[in-house]
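About this split. The held-out portion is used to measure sequence recovery: a designer receives only the structure tokens and must propose an amino acid at every position. Recovery is the fraction of positions where the proposal matches the reference. Here is one held-out target exactly as it appears in the evaluation file.
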């Protein structure tokens, strides 16, 4: 994974690292991601984040690489396993003093997605992920809402891509 300079206000490092890890694994495992999807990737701006221009340049290189490679192959079991590993490995920050999402509800959704990917349960559709509403925790531990929302947007796009290819 490329190293980017850290600046006072840049892209959220956790989001960038997760996105690039997913892109690299998808391309390595057979191309379950498209150049158009890479072109739509967006990150939150955070204090002590990655230099935006460096990250944007890296994403453009991936986008050009995929466009020059031709049409993507339909995802197979390897891509599904890669997506499952990505979901399984996600860790969300706590919400701190702000309200956050109930961790049990978020984890339950991700468990359902994993069960669907492993054929251990019914598949979860992209619209179920993007339309999910979680109870907010005001006192006690909650997941950072922006992190969860950003991850679920990317997960819904990946699930939609699987559906388009008949999985």
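Reference sequence for scoring:
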């Amino acid at each position: 994974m490329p190293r980017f300079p850290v600046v006072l206000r840049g892209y959220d490092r956790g989001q960038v690292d997760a996105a690039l890890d997913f892109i690299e694994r998808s391309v390595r495992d057979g191309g379950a991601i498209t150049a158009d999807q890479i072109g739509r990737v967006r990150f939150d701006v955070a204090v002590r984040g990655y230099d935006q221009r460096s990250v944007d340049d890296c994403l453009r290189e991936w986008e050009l690489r995929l466009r020059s490679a031709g049409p993507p192959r339909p995802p197979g079991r390897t891509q599904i396993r890669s997506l499952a590993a990505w979901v399984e490995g996600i860790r969300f920050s706590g919400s701190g003093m702000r309200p956050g999402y109930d961790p049990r509800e978020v984890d339950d959704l991700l468990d359902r997605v994993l069960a669907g990917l492993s054929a251990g349960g019914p598949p979860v559709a992209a619209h179920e992920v993007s339309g999910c509403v979680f109870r907010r925790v005001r006192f006690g531990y909650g997941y950072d809402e922006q992190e969860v929302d950003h991850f679920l947007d990317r997960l819904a796009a990946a699930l939609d891509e699987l559906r388009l290819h008949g999985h």
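Annotator remark: The chain has a mean pLDDT of 84.
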